Structures are given as C-alpha cells and as structure tokens.
Fold:
Amino acid sequence: MRREEMVRRLRQRFEAQIPWDIAVIGGGATGVGVAVDAASRGLSVALVEAHDFGKGTSSRSTKLVHGGVRYLEQGNIPLVMSALKERGLMRQNAPHLVHDLAFVVPNYSWWEAPFYGVGLKLYDLLAGKYGFGASRLLSKEETLARLPALEPEGLTGGVVYFDGQFDDARLLIHLAMTAADLGATLVNYCPATGLLHDIDGYVNGVTARDEETGEILTIPARIVVNATGVFTDSIRRMADPGAEPLVVTSQGIHLVFERSFLKGDTALMVPRTSDGRVLFVIPWHGHAVAGTTDTPVDAPSLEPRPLDEEIEFVLETAGRYLTPPPTPADVLGVYVGLRPLVQGEGKTSALSRDHVLHVDPSGLLTITGGKWTTYRHMAEDCVDHAITLGKLPDVECVTRNLRIHGYTEDAGAFGSLEVYGSDAEAIRTLAQDPSLAVQLHPALPYIAAEVVWAARVEMARTVEDVLARHTRALFLNANAAIAMAEPVARLLAAELGRDEAWITAQVQEYCALAEQYRVV
Ligand SMILES: Cc1cc2nc3c(=O)[nH]c(=O)nc-3n(C[C@H](O)[C@H](O)[C@H](O)COP(=O)(O)OP(=O)(O)OC[C@H]3O[C@@H](n4cnc5c(N)ncnc54)[C@H](O)[C@@H]3O)c2cc1C
Structure:
C-alpha cells in the first residue's frame, strides 16, 4: 500500500467525475471489513481514516476471537452462535493470526463446577462444526498444572474451555492490505470533514482533509458508510445536526505484566468479579494481559485515559487469583479502549453488544456495535444493505472463504515474525542487511527491518504507528517503547524522506503520548 498512490486515485476519480460505489468513513475493524467485503464483490470502494488504521478501539481489544461466554449467561443464544461461527471462519481465513487458546475458569465454591461446566458444554454445542475443542471439568491438581500461578487456597477445581486469540492491530493491517490487494483505495490520516448532498438532500459523497498536505479531497459516492465506532454520532450530525444519539461510550482498560505472572500456556477467566463483570488474564506476545473494565464515559476520545479506580480494580481482582499478586510497579503498560454500545437505559454492561445498521433520512448508512470477532458478518450485512440502498449490482458476499493477506498455515516457522504470515519471508530478506537485522530493544523481539517494512508496504507514517500497531511495543512495554522512539524515527525518516526537525518532533510527540501507557 502506498499512500501517495491512494491519494492520487481519489483525486483522479473526482476529476473524472466517476462516483465510487461505496465510500467508507472509519478505518477500524468495521470500516476495513466493509472495504474488504465490497472490493471482493467487485464494487469500487474508497475508505478514509482520520488517523492510522486501527488507531481506535480495534487495536485496544482483549485480543479474543470468541463467542462471548458472558452473552450465554445473558441468554443471547443467537449472538453467541453467530460469533462462534465467525470465530471458526476467522481461524480458517487467517490461520497466521488466529490461534486456539485454552481458558480455565477456576472454582472456589462447590456450585461453580456444575454451573460453569454445563454452561461451557452448551458453548461447545452452539459452536457445532466450528468448535475449537471440548470443555471439561478439571481436578484441583489439573487446574494448578494448567495455571501454576493460581491461588491454591480454597481452590476446588476448574473448567477448561477453548476460544481463539489474535493480534487485533495486525489483523486490521492485513485486512487493509487484503482490501488493497482487491483494488480498494484506503487513505490514513485523512479525516472526513463533511458530507456531500444531491439536489434532493441525499448524501452522495464525502469531503476529507489530507492531514499531510492540507488538501481537501472530494469523494463522490453512491453510498456513504459511517463506520466510526464511538464517533458515529459526530458523522451522523454532519448530515443532520439534530440527529438523536445512537451510541453511548463505555471504556475498558487492560494491564500488561511480565509473562511470569501467568505461568503455563492457559488463560484465566473469571466469569463474575466482585461487581459482576468478566476478567481475563491471557498470555499474549510473551506477556500477560489482564482486563477489562466497563466504565461509562461522557465523550469519545482517540486516546482515552485509564481511571485510577480501574487500575486498582484490575490489580485487585487479578491479585486474588495470581501468586504473587501483581503491584503497580509490575505493570509494564496500560491501554484503554472505548466500546460503542447501542443506546439504551441502565448499566453499560447490560447494553446491546449486537451490531446495528441504521439509515438516516439523508441515506447515510451507519454500522456500529458488534465486536471484532463478528467484523466479517457485520460487513456482509452492511454491504447487502448498501447494494439495496445504492442500487448497486447484486453480487453475493464471498468473504466466508476469502483468505486474509498473509495467509499461511505454518507461520510458526517464522518465529518472532509469525504475525506477518507469508510476508515474513520478505522481512527476512530485508534483514539480510545487517543494519536492519538489529533488535531495537532487548526486552522486545522487534527488529529494524519491521520498521522499514511498515513504512514501505503498510502505510505507517509516524513513530506511534510503528510502535503501537505495526509492532505492539507500546502496548507490551511502555518504557521499552519510549527507548525505541529515536531509532524508529530515524529509520522512518530515511524511508519517508523526512528531516532532523521531523525526527525531533516525532520523538517528542510520541514520548509524551507513551507516558499515558505507563502506570508508575
Ligand atoms: C476494552 C475492549 C475490549 C474488547 N475486546 C474484544 C475482544 O477481545 N474480542 C472481540 O471480538 N471484540 C472485542 N471488543 C470489541 C471490538 O474491539 C470493537 O467492536 C471493534 O474494534 C470496533 O471497531 P470499529 O471499527 O467499529 O471502531 P474503531 O476501531 O474505533 O474504528 C473507528 C475509526 O473511525 C475513525 N474515525 C473517527 N472519526 C473519523 C472521521 N471523521 N473520518 C475518518 N475516520 C474517523 C477513528 O479514528 C477510528 O479508527 C472490545 C472492545 C473494547 C472496548
């Protein structure tokens, strides 16, 4: 993906006065999923993202590809079944990024084994042919063998079940590359600034500002899809300033620790915390990630901040199960994500987790809610509606069996480059230059060649893009990622043709941001 080429295509199409079939606003899982679906049906599609692809919620998830055990408890069987099917399709289409993971629910009361044991059998049953493995009851010894760091005092046993795990930002980048491979035009750092209307007042395009040049781009389109997550209502108000809000925002935090806090390869799942929420502690990229919370927030932000009480809650709850209990000094990083929940009454954890398609009187098509795991199904639903509304050619969805960029079945052979899948070979070739084989920090596996690859092929533009999403350094170890800023800025500057002043500004800007990912 080359940004200059993408911008050129937008300009060229406007000059030729040929509308795109679909213009998408928002480059998270939802918007990029729509771009993949539309492009794979042969539709012309342009997507604009205000920041880097995946900057919003889609890089800040719990990293689970799951049916949602919690929704089972709420009796939402159709949601669970649909998500379990999508879980299976995601593993089938992106085996280099989606892996099975065993989860243990530890039992400290006599009633938990039969209660969770039966519930998780139902979970297995609903997955049908898309199952990841059979759940079963564990003795106390078996539970401790799987989770040696678990608090043994009062433990009666456990239940093991299976779900999927992934690297969310990496899948997002590979989805953007899939869309680009299929002919879609995607531009990052290009916020939508307004909507175009025809003489009847229907939305028929988008204006967007190229943040790198200040140029205003005009993108005429038969249908405009609003896929901006927690920013959904701000786009809807571009068409109708009086539009009633559709989403409310809830925030969730995760803390990252050394892997030693979760010995073994099994994740811990606490189905009911002291205030009725779910808490996971999962192994991820050689670390342990614990979360999440569910706290209502007033206004969306691209860089939400953790609340002290959220940090305390995760530390305290995780500390009840892990020995030794982690302290604030053990936190290597904290990251925060915002959920767009479809408007309703009451506590945010009781609001709808289903996706919603909404058509405003202006014809603006909004898709929001849902979850990462169901992005493909959401996109299919959205493009089906876009075809009807925009009178576009009736082509069937083909993404059920569409391989995602990087697809390979034995990515494990690429070691620390595994997440790149089939692209790992090209990165290895780059690393034949000894200066690009250099590891950027001893605490993390990332090498200089990955920075060059991110800039040349994946449209990374800033130090933050490289350290937060193209690699996951910022999420895994904020201090290490701060130390990596300058070498990364120099590598990027060489690729993007930037000067010394740019390097200084990038390092300063990035280090100020990275402070928010530290706890002490
Ligand atoms: C804490 C947390 C944990 C989660 N864990 C999981 C999980 O483990 N598994 C799972 O399946 N799901 C999980 N989810 C849900 C999942 O992450 C979200 O459903 C999904 O990422 C939402 O994607 P999105 O594209 O709708 O939103 P986003 O990823 O937020 O994308 C919206 C994009 O729109 C862009 N944008 C905004 N305004 C404009 C504009 N004017 N012009 C252009 N672009 C604009 C933003 O920059 C942003 O990139 C979790 C959610 C949270 C909050």
In short: The first helix runs from residue 3 to 15. The CA atoms of residues 39 and 116 lie 42 Å apart. The pocket of flavin-adenine dinucleotide is lined by residues 25-31, 48-51, 55-58, 60-64, 66, 191-192, 227-229, 231, 252, 292, 302, 337-339, 370-373 (CB under 6 Å). Confidence is low (pLDDT under 50) at residues 345-351.
